[in-house]
Each structure stands twice: as C-alpha cells, then as structure tokens.
Amino acid sequence: MRKLILALAIALFAPMAGAVQPDEVLDDPVLEARARELSKGLRCLVCRNENIDESNAELARDLRLFVRERLVAGDTDAQVLAAVVDSYGEFALLNPRATGANLLLWIAGPAMFLIALGVGGAFVLGRKRAAANAPEGLSDAEEARLKEILGP
Questions:
Q1: Quick check: pTM over 0.70?
Q2: Domain extents for the chain?
Q3: pLDDT at 16
Q4: Are 94 and 60 within 8 A, CB to CB?
Q5: Which value, to the nearest 10 degrees, does the dihedral of the CA atoms of residues 47, 50, 52, 58 take?
C-alpha cells in the first residue's frame, strides 16, 4: 500500500517540479521568481509546446540560463523577452504577440469563420427564396400540351 501511495504521489507532484536543475537556481528569490515566470512563457524549441521551465532538453536549459543571466545583468522582463526574441525569433514565445505579421494570423481564424457564416447564410436564404418562387405544378394548358407530346 505504501508503494502505491508513493507512486501516486510521484505521479501527481513530479510534473510540478519542473526541469530546473539546482545549479540553475538564483540565490535571490525575487529574481528566481521572475525567471520562473518568464520561463513559463517561453517555448522549448526542441519540445515545441512545452515551456522551458518544464523541458529537460539541453536547449531549454540554455534558454533558462540565458534568462537568468539577463535578469542578473539587470534587464527588465520586457528586455529579457526582447533578447530571447532577437536570438531565437518570435516562435520562442508560447503566446506570440498580436502585432505585425502575427496580427494577420490572429485575425484570420475569426475572419474565415465570419466569411463562412455569411456564405452559409446566403446559401440558406437563396434556397428558401428559390423554393418560394417555384411554381406549384403544371397549369391545365401545360398538362394538355404534355399529354399531346407524349401521345396516347
């Protein structure tokens, strides 16, 4: 039973530990807290959708150390993020900024949805109008002409 409880505790709390190694941790708890917060918003370029705080990849470790070096040097959070983007590109941000070319990507999804909604609505309205304008059936003259064509 103890082994089961221990295994369960490890399974639940191990992901919370993250991949930050003891030799990476800064002595100043305020700077370390800032580094952890910044690391949660930076993508591991090897693991893709995992932040560098949780990734065990060597590149993630390098990024964690880079962030801590910049903080120790006195950079603000914005300056650290700018330095990471300058070095690795905006892909390194887990939540890319909605500016410049990225603005097109942020707007494209909702815009395409609205266009599809408009096209679908126009199609439905067109079908309703076509059904309303359709004649009920053949007139007496049309039925007589049809019988004449088809013969006895």
A1: no
A2: 2-92, 101-150
A3: 45
A4: no
A5: -20
